[in-house]
What we know:
This protein is about 25% helix and about 30% strand. It is of the alpha/beta class. Helix 4 links the parallel strand 4 and strand 5. Helix 5 (about 140-150) crosses helix 7 (about 210-220).
Amino acid sequence: MTLPDLPYREDIxxxxxxxxxxxxxxxxxxxxxxxxxxxxxPVLDGELGDPPDRHSEVLSRAHGRVLDLGCGxxxxxxxxxxxxxxxxxxxxxxxAVAVARERGAKDVRVMPIEELSFAPESFDTAAFFSGTIGIxxxxxxxxxRLARLGGVMRPGGTLIAQVRDPEATDNPAHTSFHExxxxxxxxxxEMGLRLEYRGHASEWWHFTLVGPExxxxxxxxSGWEWVELLFEPADxxxxxRWSE
Length: 244
Ligand SMILES: C[S@@+](CC[C@H](N)C(=O)[O-])C[C@H]1O[C@@H](n2cnc3c(N)ncnc32)[C@H](O)[C@@H]1O
């Protein structure tokens, strides 16, 4: 298979996945716009592993034709295929999509969340795992994102979104950041992020750590009916139903 030949800057996430997939994992770092830096969780145990039990439990709620947005190297796509479901994975990273194909994902496409191009009523289930619901999006833009997604859902379709209450932490590096955001009149989970890997840095992107309350509000404001929160607000899954 010919792999996309992209410089680090253009597809840095993809290089993290591809190097690890090829047996050469390296640490990567996420830098927040206040300067705080954290090492990213190891992809061999995460995106390149099997979905953890909680994810499998949530995925048992998927039905019909499924869309996995920001699918990365395809662990959920492959899991759903194994359950006999028809599933389409989309991701902005050509290298992540290439890894997903090598892992056996049948239908994965390079397509950023912001540029969804499917016919109306194409899907029965849509899923966002590992924070992808808030990638490239501020809190105020979430309802518009969900409304656009609704445009490709069949009536009664299910949305599964991993959510995390940004304020469920007592780490001072985070609590002081949240206070700063509140003083600015912004949602505490809103940030700028960039990824740093092997001496290279990505462009900055907008990211929102979406908590269950924000998810409910944005969903109900955009044609989605709230169904329930599975597990705890600090690390759970929001389920909504397309009701337009
Ligand atoms: C943390 S990984 C999660 C991957 C996958 N959902 C999982 O849990 O295994 C985030 C993924 O989002 C993708 N991504 C980043 N920006 C994106 C965008 N604007 N549209 C679609 N995917 C995006 C990255 O390429 C990466 O594969």
